[in-house]
Amino acid sequence: MLNKDQFADNHFIRTIIEEDLASGKYQRIVTRFPPEPNGYLHIGHVKAICLNFGLAYLYDGLCNLRFDDTNPEKESDEYVRAIEEDVRWLGFQWHEQHFASEYFEQLYQYAVDLIHAGKAYVDDLDAEEMRRYRGTLTEAGKDSPYRQRSIEENLDLFQRMRAGEFPDGSKTLRLKIDMAAGNINLRDPVIYRIRRARHHRTGDQWVIYPMYDYTHAISDAIEHITHSLCTLEFEAHRPLYNWVVEHIGMAHQPHQYEFSRLELLYSVTSKRKLNQLVVQGHVSGWDDPRMPTVSGMRRRGYTAQGLRLFSKRIGISKSENVVDMSVLEGAIREDLENVAPRMIAVLNPIKVELVNYDEAITESRQAPFHQQHPEMGERLMPLTKTIYIEADDFALEPPKGWQRLTPGGEVRLRYSYVIKCEEVIQDASGRVISLKCRIDHDTLGQKPQGRKVKGVIHWLSTEHAVPAKVRLYDRLFTVPRPDAVRGDDGQYRDYIEFINPESVTEIDALVEPVANTLPAEAHYQFERLGYFVTDRYDHSAENPVFNRTVTLRDTWQAQADKK
Ligand code: ATP
Ligand code: MG
């Protein structure tokens, strides 16, 4: 559930909006989230979504979802649908949905107007020549020999570009601004190119496509966007944005403001790189639970609420926004702590026979699904003569400070008795096969007499436990900046080299019978082990499949502390 508190962190864009509302410049703000449908949304987009939708929500304004679909080769309907679904799942509803491609005819007409006004011309330079004419940061560019074409000739050529008379790449339409401008983006930027590519919405209707800067500014103006928020790499494009908005002569003039991109350590946040992981088969798809995509994180068990909390925590500013994975995992844990009921799972079982427990009986104790949330109810924890405990909770030779089970040692079974280990059964190689333990019958719901038993371990009745597949996920990369590691030769190394080979393992585990009643995407805490979720696709009540969302503690930090 959304509430205004979630978006009420202070930052410079809010200050601007408050001033604009207070001065009466706008009665109501209108923002937009403008993804290009060339991949699935990732954690960086979550930041932009929470900002744009969050501000509209906070100020009772409007936010549009607009697809910036001007590069037909890379875009598809599949991506459009995935993006819509992700935005909704994150908890947001757009005011209007638009596609930049809806505006192609209008954009064309504005270009014709600009030609009429002597502010655009058709150029025949090819990409290489254009680069040479453009100049550098320190050197002014040169006018193209085609810059002085007459308005009539330009109108005729542009119309014939549209009609498909010229081959791909042979001509462009450029704005006539200033080839000596200090800002290279103002050196007669190209606004149309010829490209014979089938568009996912307009099909083969167009062979010329408008460029991003031109399209984006006009789309914002058409939709009456008040605050057009984008990442810092567009800062140098703002003069061009303003030029376009001014010269097309629309009454409404949107303004662009920039904030820093989120960079998440141990991850890559670029659709192009994520696409490579998918295409080369390093992950099972865009929604692989190890992916930093919205659909991957959802499948992993991250919650929309947790992602919104994360987004609030990282803040909005113009300074670098490099964030450790532990911040994301911390926000997810914090949300799950409150909303995930508890259950018991034994991931790596050893059998324990309770030698002084009657085979004919089953004692069942009530156990709450969540200690702090009685409204989540209770379930029965049946105790039988044989139980499973976690192999990790037993040590033949315990290290110092060990509080779990050892030969001759005592431990409490969660929600049940204190037991003492009397016998260890091992195979020929010394591997522990099972244990024989004795119950202290006086310890149900009360402390043992005359001694302290500190350890508490989880367990399951062998008669009641049900099998489940459990997928243990870990970080996808082994280094903080997989796409910024340089080799001895100074060149960037391929980030594929840094994929964590142990980022997923699937095990056969045992869980409580409640697993056989769960729908997909049910969040649970496996007591003492971590947060888990039933898999969105592979889980069924008959054959439960759980994904580990996050461990209870930050195990990566613990490792770093040891080093
Ligand atoms: P990518 O490089 O992954 O393709 P992009 O910026 O090209 O990202 P778009 O689909 O064009 O992706 O982005 C939609 C919006 O999301 C833009 O306003 C963009 O600035 C914003 N955005 C993208 N990545 C991030 C990020 N890492 N942090 C914050 N905002 C982002
Ligand atoms: Mg892009």
Q: Can you characterise this structure?
A:
α3 links the parallel β2 (62-67) and β3. The chain has a 7-stranded mixed sheet with strand order 12-25-26-27-23-24-13, with helices on one face. The protein has a 7-stranded mixed sheet with strand order 21-18-19-20-14-17-22, with no helix packed on it. Strands 4-5-6-7 form a 4-stranded antiparallel sheet. The model has no long low-confidence stretch (mean pLDDT 96). 26% of the residues lie in helices and 23% in strands. It has 563 residues and is α/β, with parallel strands linked by helices. It has helices at residues 12-22, 43-58, 77-89, 104-116, 127-134, 151-163, 212-222, 238-247, 271-279, 294-300, 304-314, 325-339, 555-562, and strands spanning 30-33, 62-67, 97-99, 120-123, 172-175, 190-194, 208-210, 227-231, 255-259, 262-264, 321-323, 342-343, 345-346, 349-354, 363-368, 378-383, 386-390, 410-413, 418-426, 432-440, 456-457, 459-461, 466-473, 504-511, 523-526, 530-534, 545-551. Adenosine-5'-triphosphate is lined by residues 34-36, 44-45, 47-48, 230-231, 261-262, 269-271.
Offer a concise description of the structure.
The chain is α/β, with parallel strands linked by helices and 563 residues long. The chain has helices at 12-22, 43-58, 77-89, 104-116, 127-134, 151-163, 212-222, 238-247, 271-279, 294-300, 304-314, 325-339, 555-562, and strands at residues 30-33, 62-67, 97-99, 120-123, 172-175, 190-194, 208-210, 227-231, 255-259, 262-264, 321-323, 342-343, 345-346, 349-354, 363-368, 378-383, 386-390, 410-413, 418-426, 432-440, 456-457, 459-461, 466-473, 504-511, 523-526, 530-534, 545-551.
